[in-house]
Amino acid sequence: MSKKVFPDAKAALAGAIKDGMTLMAGGFGLCGIPDLLIEAVRESGAKDLTFISNNAGIDGAGLGILLETRQIKKMISSYVGENKLFAQQFLAGELELEFTPQGTLAERIRAGGAGIPAFFTKTGVGTLVAEGKEERVFDGERYIMERGLFADISLVHAWKGDTEGNLVYRKTARNFNPMMASASRLTIAQVEHLVPAGEIDPDHMHTPGIFVKRIVHVTNAAKRIEQRTTRKRAA
Question: How far is 202 from 210, CA to CA, in rounded Å?
């Protein structure tokens, strides 16, 4: 077995996480989130953490469990509307928030992984998002500068992976996970289906193993539904 494979999430985080670190957590809502790794962060007791994530899960799930223990100091996020505790802590001045448009957030992470320190975008020009940011005009259009994002640790969830860390994401779970995997000093992946190296077709890999340093095999991964909606059957 590869030295990258750890027996559980707690072991995968051991010796890596410290107070004050910046972490990325993949997923969108509850889809494709590294839930067991997030639970391991809670068990570590690390505090004053900055998390880069599209959202903070929901109350009692995802990053929401770290809000409950007040381990998160700051969130760099796009969508924060599903978590009442998030809103309470933010409005009380107990949680810092760097609010970022969703496409800009994705590009900031991609840029960080590619070694690009900053870029210009039209998104947010003339709004609160642009406050305090450098602005330039290109071809007669106004743009604001956004910084690339790079973390100490990235926590990602993959549908399939091999023992060398090559990863495949499935459907909607292929959201923020791929770019986050390349944008940190240490990427830890929880994998639903772990296979021997060489079993995944190179053309089907979404994240090359060179980016992944630690792997946890997650069997019977929970597939929680953020909002269950139903409609009447057609007549």
Answer: 13
Taking only the tens of pLDDT, the chain with its 235 residues reads 579 999 999 999 999 999 999 999 999 888 899 999 999 999 999 999 999 999 888 888 999 999 999 999 999 999 887 789 999 999 999 999 999 999 999 999 999 999 999 999 999 999 999 999 999 999 999 999 999 999 999 999 999 999 999 999 999 889 999 999 999 999 999 999 999 999 999 999 999 999 999 999 998 777 776 666 777 777 6
CA distance linking residue 216 with residue 235, whole number of Å = 47
Are the C-beta atoms of 90 and 83 separated by less than 8 Å? no
Write out the E strands in 42-123: 49-52, 72-77, 96-99, 118-121
* Three state DSSP letters for 111-126: HHHCCCCEEEECCCCC
What pTM did the predictor assign?
Answer: 0.91
CA distances from 29 to 23, 34, 78, 139, 230 (A): 17, 11, 11, 37, 19
